[in-house]
Structures are given as structure tokens and as C-alpha cells.
Amino acid sequence: MTKKNSISNPQAKQINSKKWVWGVLVMAAGIFFVWFFSKGAHFGQANPEGEGAKGNSNPRLVKQPGSLLSKKSDGAKVVEGEQPPGSRFDFTFDSVTVGGKKRSLLSTGRDAKYVPDSDAPSGRDLWIQDETGHERLVDSSVYRAKFSPDGSKIAYTTTEATMRIEDLQGNKVAEVQGAYEPNWKPDGSSVIFSKVPPGLPNNSPGAFQLATVDPATGKVETLTDGKFDDGRPVFDPSGKSILFVSGGRSGLASFWMIKAPGEQPVQITNVGETGVNEKFVPTPYSPKNFWSTGSPWFVYDVQRDGNKQIWGLHLDADGTPTEAIQLAEGLYPRPGAAPNTFAYENTDGKIVESNLPQ
Question: How far does CA 133 lie from the centroid of its chain?
């Protein structure tokens, strides 16, 4: 009887060993694949102030069904940009009009720094331009800058994660280390920001806690425990509630709200959802967002997979969202010239103005 050719024991062990190694490698690759793409539905990035950092974690963009409208605003008209043609400034952090005259926080471009341990650009230079056109360099490397509501002070965060509050002449009012994303309370009595929890590095800490600082005293008060990635905080128009974004709290980047001092955060969008679906409400891409003056619309931009969109989140008096709607195609929204309007950069790079839903 002819025997089939068999593999000797040493050969078998060698081949089985190779198969085992390849099996482990394939399994590891599969685990990495699942982990990597699941991160898209969560929240967090090396540069917490960068465009598309906090909140730019929706894997894809969807429109809202049923009572969440999906139609876009129409009737957009081209308007003037924030800076005249030929200006050396290419970016506006913020602007405010006082006594009919405009003050601006401007930038000539990106600085030469990079986020530590990455190839991501760092910040921008920051200039203040007063109503007479006089300009002053405030800092050479900044993430975010905002005027106080009355235009008498500025709050800005440097790429070293230092928040400074100054008057218009550059005199320091307050300073906080490990801070990002400052936004003023409507009455100017405090600044809310994302704070690096104790013991974590200032760059890529992995978690943030919401905090406020009183410019008059420099006192810092923390509002959340720092166990999650709480970011993009803003006061609502009344100054009583705080809207912010977190992905770590629910596993999906969503809007949350602290409705009164001392209360626990409450999730107000994507409640009960475990993934992106037709009901998903995306979160902000850039720091360019605002509350409308004529109605309680929070207007922000979204970008993912080449899509550039302006969204609006409408809240009722107790902070419950009643509508989430894609308003337009574009980025960088700001208040329009009249109530219930907004301006933005459309996909052709033009600044246009449109109406908010009534």
C-alpha cells in the first residue's frame, strides 16, 4: 500500500508556529481596525482648541427626520467679509462694536509651532485693532481669543495652555494655567473654559473639566469632575445655563447642559443613541459659534468627509432642544447684520448672509 507523503514533526511544528504567529497578527489588526474606526463616534483630539477637535467626532453627517427639519435656509445673499480686501489679516478671532465703532481680534496667519508629538499646526498670532485702526500684537501663539460683552477686556488662550484676561492696553487682569476655550458670561462677570484636571499634561490630557474664573478676583471654580472630555463650553443667553460637548459621558459626541449652578450635567442630544443614525445631531467643528439674538438658536459649523455645513440647535426656555437643522453649506458662522440672521463662508469661499428659521 502506498503511503501519502507526510510532513515530519519538526516541519509540522514550524508551520504550525508560523500559522499561530500570522493568526495573532491578523487578530491584532482586526482589533486595531475596530478600535480605530470606533473612535470616529467618540470625542477627543490632541489639540483641544483646533478646528475639528472637540465635537468633530461624528462619523458621517445626516439630516434630521420628522420634527427635526432637514431643509436648508434659502435666500442667502453675498455680504462683505470681516476684513476689507487686501488686508494683511487672514483670520478674525472675534469682533465687537462699541459706540457704533468696531474693535477686532485678528491674526496674520499660523505660527511656526506644532502641537507636541504631532505634525498638527499649533496656534496663530493675535493682534488687537481698535476703533481708530491702531494695531497691537497681543501674543505670538494663540488658540482662541474673545472680547468681553462690553468690549473692555479680552480673554485668550495661548498654545502653552495659559489663559490670560487683559484690558485693551494689555494690563493683566487674571491668568489661569491649563486652560482652553474661553467664553464670556453675557454680563461679563465670569469666563467659562475647559480646564486640564490636576495631574494631567497640558497637551493632550485626555480629559477636561469645565470651570469658571472671576476676572475681578481671579477665583477659579470647577463645575465638572474632570473624568470626561467636557469641552466647547458656552453660557446660554440668560447666563444661567451652560451648554457643552462631551463624547466620553455617553460614548457618542453630544450636547450636554448644566441647567443651574450646582446641578449635574444633562444630555440633551442623541439621548439613548449608541451610534450614528438618522436621528444623530452632530457637534461643532470650529470655535465659530454663537447664540442668535432674536430667538434661542445656537448656530455652529460641522465638517466631516468633505462636507461643510452650518447647523442650528433650537432650545426652549428650560433648555430642551426642539429642533436640530442643517441651515446651509459652509463654515465659520457669525451673527448677521439683523436679528434672526447669520453670516458664514459658503463652499465658494464667499461670505453670505441668510435668515434663521422663524
Answer: 30
Max Cα–Cα distance, the chain, nearest Å: 107
Taking only the tens place, the pLDDT of each residue in 102-155 is: 999 999 988 876 666 655 557 999 999 999 999 999 999 999 999 999 999 999
pLDDT per position as a tens digit, 65-76: 333 433 454 456
Ranges 141-150, 152-161, 274-283: which has the least confidence = 274-283
> Measured between alpha carbons, how far is 104 from 119 in angstroms, rounded to an integer?
30
- Whether the CB-CB separation of 114 and 122 falls below 8 Å is answered with yes
**Main-chain dihedrals φ then ψ at residue 192, nearest 5 degrees:** -95, 150
Residue by residue, DSSP assigns 113-179 as -B-TTS-SB--EEEEEE-TTS-EEEEEEEEEEEEE-TTSSEEEEEETTSEEEEEETT--EEEEEESE
Around Cβ 122, how many Cβ atoms within 10 Å? Answer: 22
Strand partners, 92: 106
pTM given for the model: 0.78
Domains of the chain, start order? 57-84+278-358 (no CATH), 88-246 (2.120.10.30)
